Amino acid sequence: MEQFEELQERTRKFALRIVKLFRSLPKTDDARLLGKQLLRSGTSIGANYRAACRARSRAEFVAKLGIVLEEADETVSWLELMRDAGIFPEAKLREIVQEAKELVAIFVTSVRTAKGLTSSI
Q: Is 23 helix (H, G, I), strand (E, B) or coil?
């Protein structure tokens, strides 16, 4: 259970970093548009992980973890797009992109493990 709580806290802190990044974006149309997408996906990782931890069955847990993984991967995509479009300096995005990629890796492994536990094949 402690592992779940640690990951909940990590995803909560990540969401806070996303909120702070959003607040510091340039006030241009493209930055705000991409920023809103980033804000939505980046903050939903933790919320959906909390929901997964409260799943009523292993199948529901796997399904909810799949959503968490999708949101984490989408967040990486938005961050990289902001970097590549020059909306936010690469140096300032490096750490948060790395954290987002680590979260993706964690949830890829979690989904694979959880699926392995649910299938008898």
A: helix
Helix/strand number for the chain, H first, E second: 4, 0
Query: Helix or strand or coil: residue 9?
Result: helix
- CA dist., res. 107 & res. 56, Å (int): 19
- Express each pLDDT in 28-39 by its tens digit: 999 999 999 999
Question: pLDDT confidence of 4, banded at 50, 70, 90?
Answer: confident
pTM: 0.91
Could you give the CA distance from residue 112 to residue 97 in angstroms, rounded to a whole number? 23
Q: Which domains does the chain show, CATH number per domain?
A: 2-118 (1.20.1440.60)
**Least confident among 92-96, 110-114, 117-121:** 117-121
C-alpha distances (whole Å) from 44 to each of 23, 47, 57, 73, 74 are 17, 5, 21, 12, 11
